[in-house]
Please model this.
Amino acid sequence: MKKILGLLVISTLVISCGESIEQKAGHHLDNAKEAFSIGNYNVAKQEIDSIKILYPKAFEARRQGIRLMQQIEEAEQTRIIEYEDSMIAVAQAAFDKIKAGYAFEKDERYQDIGLYTIKSQAPQRNTDRTYIRAQVDELGRMTLISSYRGSSYIHHDWLKLSVGEVYVDTPESKDRHEFTDLGVYYEWLSFINGNDGGAAAFINANKDADIRYTLYRKAGQEESRPVYRNLKLNKDDRYAIASLYELSQVLLSLNEHKNLRDEAQRHLMFIRSKMKDESAEEGVQEDK
Model:
């Protein structure tokens, strides 16, 4: 038995040694086709890469490998599109379920992207107090706004929010709008597009807790110093910000999946266009 097995191995090696480069490359091509047929695209691509690396002069096998690689890429992008479409449907359903709870503002003359807010936090309803409000745009980008009211400007740059010994600091922001009205001074300090140092996430995670915050100022080379201490973020504001934070996460997810789907569609169109051009070129060469 051992002698027979030995002879079979030797025979296989002899046959293999007698194969042409195209035949050897063809084994990898067959493996790639088999892997592709069962949806194992990574293995299929590895087999095609092996042809290029091991048999660079197997021109016919490489040509067929390139065509198969295009088919693999086409199938991959189609799979991505199908998956992203399913995720878009899930995110869209989640958004449709909650969107009625928000006020939507968009002036078509001046705004390309609209904003979602909570009516109770509207500035015109809160001219008599210092508080934190939030807004979320249609792309899911959230902005926190520290609204100050007082007898003079304090020019605050950042905030510290805390629950007991746990706290979070916002980064400094230069996006500050200041104005006066009937002798009252107002400042709106904005942390745009989620650049709040995790403050919105902190409020969301602690919406049922007693959240305190302090306004800080840093001017020139001075060290930061508190300019308005120990403010309380009331329950309505905590819940409003937490709700807008959750809306932000839904819209961010929805738009991310749309972007990935659109990118896959563009890639798919490019691949198919390239396949069509190469097929037409081959047809011209055959006619000659």
Remarks:
- The beta strands are 103-105, 115-117, 131-137, 142-150, 158-163, 166-169, 176-181, 184-191, 211-217, 225-233.
- The mean pLDDT is 91.
